[in-house]
Amino acid sequence: MTVSESNDDGASRRRGKRQGDKKEKKQRPFWQELPILIGIAAIIAALMVTFVGRPYVIPSQSMENTLKIGDRIYVQKLSYYWGDPQPGDVVVFVGPSSSWNASHRSIRSDNTVVRGVQNFFSFFGLVPPDENDLVKRVIAVGGQTVQCCDAQGRVMVDGKPLDEPYARYDVPYVPGRQAGPDARKGQSSAGREFGPVKVAEGRVWVMGDNRNQSADSRYHMDDEYGGQVPVSDIRGKAVFRIWPINRIGPIHAVDPQTN
């Protein structure tokens, strides 16, 4: 036998061995791979909810007509990793004080087991978080002075009236009628006047688009933050309506100070 023939014979045996190894490796059944796939999907979902964003449901009419009761919105967190909320942003935030949270009731079950299941699924974004999350529009930011009203009933920031195409008022402006804490004590909610209020650094002044139906910064001026919301309590920026079908679309941040 020549050397060439020996080499050819060895190469053939090696190829045969590799082919045999491939035949021995069998594809796992799908039912064995399914738990792995579910685990990977759960980890991705948890990371998305924690660091990227999550859906929320609109519970009240305070942001009509921009957002309506029952709308599902997507709130992203990425924008505020590298910057602060800006005037016109629609934000979701957790109630910063007892004044904001007075009417909040936990959505968790009293049953320990059920509550544990709810908390577990909330971690993956399948159940809402157990906190008083609110949605409003940023009107003024730290260092600015906000007040109402000018002669036309418009909100002003640093002495300049705002252009607010999204704002809805149910009744005309009545000079001298106050908004704010006194309205909770029996004065008409149609009042607009408040301030001037100097917004502290690291905080924002928020108002609902449906001005006569929104208990926003104006109605919490007697709390420890003067009605302002610390930026640290903001969960993210509302960017998209994901339900119902006929309202799917982007949520626009309209800066009232530049339009």
Could you name the key traits of this structure?
about 260 residues; alpha+beta; Umud Fragment, subunit A; eight-stranded antiparallel beta sheet; four-stranded antiparallel beta sheet; 4 helices; about 25% helix; disordered N terminus
Describe the protein in words:
The strands form two sheets. Strands 1, 2, 3, 4, 9, 10, 11 and 12 form an eight-stranded antiparallel sheet that branches. A four-stranded antiparallel sheet has the order 7-6-5-8, with no helix packed on it. The model is unreliable at 1-6 (pLDDT under 50). The chain has one domain (30-250): Umud Fragment, subunit A (Ribbon). The protein is of the alpha+beta class and 259 residues long. A hairpin with a 2-residue loop joins strand 6 (155-157) and strand 7. 24% of the residues lie in helices and 22% in strands. The longest helix is centred in the first third of the chain and has 23 residues, at 30-52. It is elongated, with a radius of gyration of 28 Å.
- What is the CATH architecture assignment? Ribbon
The proportion of strand residues reads 15-25%
Task: Tell me, rounded to a whole number, the average pLDDT.
Answer: 86
CATH class: Mainly Beta
Structural class estimated from helices and strands: alpha+beta
Number of helices: 4
Q: Name the CATH homologous superfamily.
A: Umud Fragment, subunit A
End-to-end gap: 92 Å
Q: Which of globular, elongated, flat, extended, rod-shaped describes the shape?
A: elongated
Number of strands: 12
Rg on CA atoms, Å: 28 Å
